Amino acid sequence: MLLGFRPSLRLLSPRLQLLQSRCVQSEHPATSAAVGSVLSALRSICGEGGVSFGAAVREQHGRDESIHRCCPPDVVVFPRCVEEVSALAKVCHQHNLPIIPFGTGTGLEGGVSAVKGGVCFSLRNMDQVLDLHPEDFDVAVEPGVTRKALNSYLRDTGLWFPVDPGADASLCGMAATSASGTNAVRYGTMRENVLNLEVVLADGTVLHTAGRGRRPRKTAAGYNLTNLLVGSEGTLGIITKATLRLYGIPEAMVSAVCSFPSVQAAVDSTVQILQAGVPIARIEFLDDVMMDACNRFSSLSYAVSPTLFLEFHGSERSLEEQVLTAEDITQSNGGSDFQWARDAGSRERLWKARHDAWYAALALRPGCKAYATDVCVPLSRLPQIIVETKQDLMENRLTGPIAGHVGDGNFHCLMVVEPSDPEELHRVHLFTERLARRALALDGTCTGEHGVGLGKRALLCEEVGPEAVKVMQRLKDSLDPKNLMNPGKILQ
């Protein structure tokens, strides 16, 4: 239970002492009485139960699923509406307190770590689905709504939201990190599926990036503020509402699994299927190490070899054409016959096994930690980079099963590492840097979907160049001149 108890100011925890010191150092000189005033202001906005100093609660909100160490905030607040978020932000702005937005904590780059302390805005209580317009294929959601909750809400409408990063992440958090996932090859990433955002800026100003209530499918009106905020990782503002595109549920769906004699053959098949114009919904690659891990973890019996998981959406007739073309291409590259998953239950089990790849990789070395790499390259460069990466892993004696959304050139090595072994940690660090720079050398990116967070700030500069980073910094300074919004992320 989350309790917003009132601690004695004579018995401040180290974190609250830090909060006091920040107040003293700000342009508003403060004593412990002022600290009490700040805490009273937070409680007056979201209630006694909406403010927590508990160590367990703060630690929960100081970590995500990455390998980065936990950096707890000084205090966690639980606003219930945009008005409360705005009022809380004004208090933080007045007292120079960092602001860290928190959705579900499923990120993979340390994006929620309170590296400079401050106030974590946990948005889980804002969990309403708003303004559904089925005839226009759009919906607005608050930040506590997850993708599974939205699709459950939409179940009887004939509509769905297809962006699927695997974890049951919050949709506004997915917008903040520009998430994608297994369906991106057909339906795009969050960047293509967000129509408008309601955002609270560092000073409490409420911004509607496309105008209040606007939801056109396209616009040529001014700067694209929506896409500026998508992928900003909480460094420019707190997303309090997202207007999203929806899609009709396909008439028919079918999934298949196909194994290959080599990585090259599997990835070549992927590229050729896309070049043939097959509107495939999902096409996922798992290498032999990952397939072995998934077989063990999910009690499967697929071949332990490079494998594609495929899914086709459309009418019954169009599916026949898609499947025939895909089968011809895979078999020409030495692929096996398709193993089918036709009914909803079979498809769900197949894709659950794919989504459980993280946990399957961890099970290869019980007691170890996992770190997910994330690069993306042009499709024509995909076979080269995966083959070179496999060789790099073997030469450096590293456990790194590969799984990827290869339909859009994005793949991950799920590095399983013993955190108490500094030599192995060093080898993993060097490997991940080589992988990122290998992607950059092939005209790709150091992150296709996880974001920059804490770990890829230097790589961002290498990727876009110092002039682009300077422009990003000027944008940050313009919207957040005190550097209160999730400081220490993306930019140095």
UniProtKB/TrEMBL annotation:
Entry's InterPro entries? FAD-bd_oxidored_4_C, FAD-bd_PCMH, FAD-bd_PCMH-like_sf, FAD-bd_PCMH_sub2, FAD-linked_Oxase-like_C, Oxid_FAD_bind_N, Vanillyl_alc_oxidase_C-sub2
Q: Which UniProt keywords apply?
A: Acetylation, FAD, Flavoprotein, Mitochondrion, Oxidoreductase, Transit peptide
Provide the catalytic activity annotation. (R)-lactate + 2 Fe(III)-[cytochrome c] = 2 Fe(II)-[cytochrome c] + pyruvate + 2 H(+)
Q: What is the enzyme's main class? A: oxidoreductase
Q: What is its main location?
A: mitochondrion
Q: Which processes are annotated in GO (biological process)? A: lactate catabolic process
Task: List the GO molecular function terms.
Answer: D-lactate dehydrogenase (cytochrome) activity; D-lactate dehydrogenase (NAD+) activity; FAD binding
The family database entries (Gene3D superfamilies) matched by this protein are listed as: 3.30.465.10, 3.30.70.2740, Vanillyl-alcohol Oxidase, Chain A, domain 4
Q: Where in the cell is it found?
A: Mitochondrion
Listed cofactors:
FAD
Q: Which domain of life is it from?
A: Eukaryota
Extract the Pfam families matched here: FAD-oxidase_C, FAD_binding_4
Quaternary structure and partners: Interacts with CSRP3.
Describe its function: Involved in D-lactate, but not L-lactate catabolic process.
- Put simply, this protein is called Probable D-lactate dehydrogenase, mitochondrial
* Species of the source: Gymnodraco acuticeps (Antarctic dragonfish)
Source lineage: Eukaryota, Metazoa, Chordata, Craniata, Vertebrata
What's the encoding gene here? ldhd
